[in-house]
Amino acid sequence: MTPRTERQPQMSVEEFEQLERHAPETVWLEFINGKVQVKSVPDGNHSEIYMWLLERCMQLRPDLRLHPERGLRTEAYRRGRARADGVLVPKGSLKGRGEWAEADGVLMAVEITSHDSDTNRRDRVEKPDGYAAAGIPVYLLIDRDECAVVVFNQPEGGRYRHEEKLPFGATVRLPEPVNITLDTEPLKEFAD
Asked: Is 9 inside any structural domain?
């Protein structure tokens, strides 16, 4: 079997970016592990969870900004293109950056699971690896199917060395450089 890193991509990154530029506004595309993937458009509970996290970040770290649906260059050699549900960055650090920005300066990537058939592979397997390979210090997965929050950190060699999974309702500490503590009790309301 050919290792994952040696598989031939469906197309070049440049071809993907051209395809993505011409996709209808109702379709969000990503390029993960050399394959084009369609990202689900968020439902209401997904949006409410994002707003909850945005409010917490603004209250606890006013020096940072949580930007929605941000395109990032990920994976080894930045050959992937992931559209994170949110990226936490220092205020003003996205100024002048294009649609698919380098991940340098991103403190945390956020994904909120959708109820689709690709969630397990995309959000729980491929994106952690892509974000770790890009050197993003923290990956926060809000997993509605599992009613859990998963914090990944300590990226090294294309993987996160540390992963902590806690149920909705637990107090979750997002490690440095994020340094935020979240009371996740409100997430129980949006588990459906």
From this structure: no
